[in-house]
Q: What sequence folds into this?
């Protein structure tokens, strides 16, 4: 039910018998678009929506696996006057508060993680921080606050556009392949079924953060707002210096060609893949992720072709065409 503090209706949906879905006992469908989120979101939805926003806040938002981490590091460095020393020594997970991260783990997952690490006091303290609601963490975070979220714009803090929002979108076929690998790298969130099953669960809007196209189109419709910068992952891959200049202009920063070249080198895929501050090594140490899985994978565009058979390719073409029919949104990879 919608309430005085929260404008959207929240419905609980049982997941028993659904294949290819991240292992939650139930999910929520929120609002008229039916956004899917873990059941625990109902306890924090209003706190997030009504969160106090500072004009100096910086949000980096996206559907999962759309280039979020890459964008986060770029944005943080541009806003922080290219402070590479801090960027390399402070993990991205500490530089950004992940607004809804604590909701990604149900009580059973938490118990398993605590049991694995029960004799390590330092790790248990890390857990306490990781499971603390993002809104509580941000209350005591000094400005400028850097905030990561996979929530669509309508479920983000209602005053988010009084701050700066950078939204990054990626060809959904590549994003969903990458999302599949991420889920299977998580120790207690593995899915039943192969990639095709997972793909169908995303297209049918039963994975968290779906529906994909509504998520992207909400941000696209606000792309001309002075506090919204809409980026495409494919443009970053093709011409990173141009994107760096756009982001710098958005934040009122001016860097010379040498400084831009150094930043692009820092963000190059080979260097990024080797950078421990962005590779979520802490997640492996704490047992969230399998030690032999990579958080930063291949990073290329068009890799989805290695996973799709002819039937899936035709289905994807139809799904994309139907969802882009009523919008001028056009992905660089589809032009």
A:
């Amino acid at each position: 039910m919608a309430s005085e503090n929260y404008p959207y209706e929240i419905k609980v949906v049982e997941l028993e018998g659904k294949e290819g879905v991240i292992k939650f006992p139930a999910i929520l469908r929120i609002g008229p678009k039916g956004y899917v989120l873990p059941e625990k979101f109902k306890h924090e939805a209003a706190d997030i929506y009504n969160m106090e926003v500072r004009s100096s806040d910086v949000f980096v938002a996206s559907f999962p696996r759309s280039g979020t981490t890459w964008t986060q590091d770029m944005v943080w460095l541009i806003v922080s006057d290219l402070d590479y020393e801090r960027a390399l020594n402070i993990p991205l997970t500490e530089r950004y508060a992940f607004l809804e991260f604590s909701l990604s783990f149900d009580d059973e997952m938490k118990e398993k993680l605590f049991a694995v690490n029960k004799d390590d006091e330092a790790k248990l303290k890390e857990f306490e921080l990781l499971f603390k609601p993002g809104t509580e963490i941000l209350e005591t975070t000094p400005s400028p606050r850097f905030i990561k979220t996979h929530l669509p714009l309508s479920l983000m803090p209602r005053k988010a556009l009084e701050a700066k929002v950078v939204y990054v979108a990626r060809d959904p076929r590549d994003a969903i392949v990458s999302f599949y690998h991420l889920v299977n790298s998580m120790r207690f969130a593995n899915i039943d079924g192969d990639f095709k099953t997972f793909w169908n669960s995303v297209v049918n809007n039963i994975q968290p953060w779906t529906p994909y196209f509504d998520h992207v189109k909400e941000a696209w419709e606000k792309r001309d707002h002075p506090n919204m910068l809409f980026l495409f992952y494919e443009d970053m891959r093709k011409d990173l210096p141009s994107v760096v200049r756009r982001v710098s202009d958005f934040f009122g920063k001016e860097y010379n060609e040498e400084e831009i070249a150094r930043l692009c080198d820092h963000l190059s895929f080979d260097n990024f893949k080797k950078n421990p501050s962005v590779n979520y090594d802490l997640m492996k140490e704490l047992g969230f992720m399998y030690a032999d899985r990579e958080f930063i994978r291949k990073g290329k565009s068009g890799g989805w072709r290695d996973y799709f058979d002819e039937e899936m390719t035709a289905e994807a073409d139809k799904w994309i065409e139907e969802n882009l029919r009523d919008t001028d949104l056009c992905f660089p990879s589809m032009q």
